[in-house]
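User: Predict the complex with adenosine-5'-triphosphate.
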Amino acid sequence: MKIIISWLAYNNDFQNGTVDESGPTYNFHNYFFNEAQYDKHILLATETPENLRITKLENKLKRDFPKHNIECKTVSIEDPIDLREVKTKVEPILLDLSDCEIDIFFSPGTSIMQVAWYICHTSLGLNSRLIQVRPAKHSQSNKPERLIIDVNTSEIPKGVILKQKNSESDTYEHTENYLITDSIQPVYDNAFKVAQTDNVTTLIQAETGTGKEHLARFIHENSVRSNQPYIPINCSAFSDDLLESRLFGHKKGAFTGATKDKEGIFKKTDGGTVFLDEIGDISSYMQQALLRVLEEKEITPVGGTPEKIDVRIITASNKNLVQLCKDDKFRWDLFYRLNVAPLELPSLQERGKGEVEKMIDFFIDQKQKTLKKSAKLEFSKEAKKVLVNYGYPGNIRELENLIERLYVFAEEEVMANDIPNFIKKNDNKKSLSLADLEKRHIEYVMDLYNGNQSKSAEALGIVVNTLKNKMEKYGLKRQDFVK
Ligand SMILES: Nc1ncnc2c1ncn2[C@@H]1O[C@H](COP(=O)(O)OP(=O)(O)OP(=O)(O)O)[C@@H](O)[C@H]1O
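Assistant: Here is the predicted structure with adenosine-5'-triphosphate placed in the model:
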């Protein structure tokens, strides 16, 4: 299929508010659409105030050229001189046409739109050409001439980064909450590239507590959607019905208890980003529904009718989705849709002791501020060594909680004695089995309550006898937790 794609020329396509037949778009249809054998013209316009104009132009073109296939699309662009925004908005439109021969009609549109076309043409690796028209008055033949702009396309795939500097930022934004150490620098670099390419779905695979949500927020904050809402949701925390209603919303009367219309998360984040955590846990029904959202870019509230939405979807899983697909528990088509730009975070243990130490220092500084402590926590040499050598099965989250807890309970200098027993006893072999996590959590809570089993059981949400049985099963002794 051969496509011509262009922006509406807000000034040149019109004269005194009516369509100008000597304007670039009308002229193109008059002289070149048939001659160059195009199958379709995709005509783009920013949402307002050109809406009315695009309808006028569309009606006129369809009336005068009834055989020409014309599709008009409005694109929501907040700031038409923001190159990054314009580029990220046209990019997915072009990528959707990757099977076609694409001629980009370069002339109409603002200069920023032209630069965006140029970058997309050179970097997306599509079968595209840049076309210009020389007006009749400047051509020797006295007729308009169609010219092909000859520029080499890049060998580099679509990730060409566009850095538009403003007075406040250089590259990454909002970095104060992120410690980006050497081993995760490449992941954050790739996440930054993902952020620059709007609408590309991302799947973050990593163990629990390694910073998947943190990374998703980083993508949102560094994207053109950063001023729009960002909502994270843990899919595994909801039953199927509840998840459906949470994500898609519902209409009054859709089910018992639906006393009024309720907007879902996709609608609330329209224009922004949704982060779906634990995506491997959703049912096959929800997988199907999500696939529809990705393919049709529309949602259907429970008891309602389809509605268009514009959200970036970032997903994460601590399960191996490929294995889930092989086991027929996850749809391959959804997996491929989600996995367009995969990102993987290492566990804290994989990151090495040097980085664990940097993380400890980072949280010592951060928690001093957030907990409003006048003095910074100091560590004896031995205490620091214990912390650095521990395996952290719960990854960054566990390390962060530990520092917070030490701020609460320890004196200004933390001695090895102040560190919970289960950390001191750590044999540095890490296991993520549920049983192991349960054992560690019981140790953590028992340590927190100084070996008081009633309080520990209450905090764990189980009865004392169950706690005693579990402790026996794991070979834990109450007296080991009494300080
Ligand atoms: N690069 C980082 N710099 C500073 N803090 C971080 C970083 N990555 C993660 N954290 C902190 O670690 C904690 C756990 O991170 P996060 O919630 O993103 O992990 P997760 O992988 O999504 O966990 P889960 O699998 O349990 O949902 C959070 O409090 C987060 O602020």
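The pocket of adenosine-5'-triphosphate is lined by residues 178-180, 206, 208-214, 277, 318, 396-397, 400 (CB under 6 Å).
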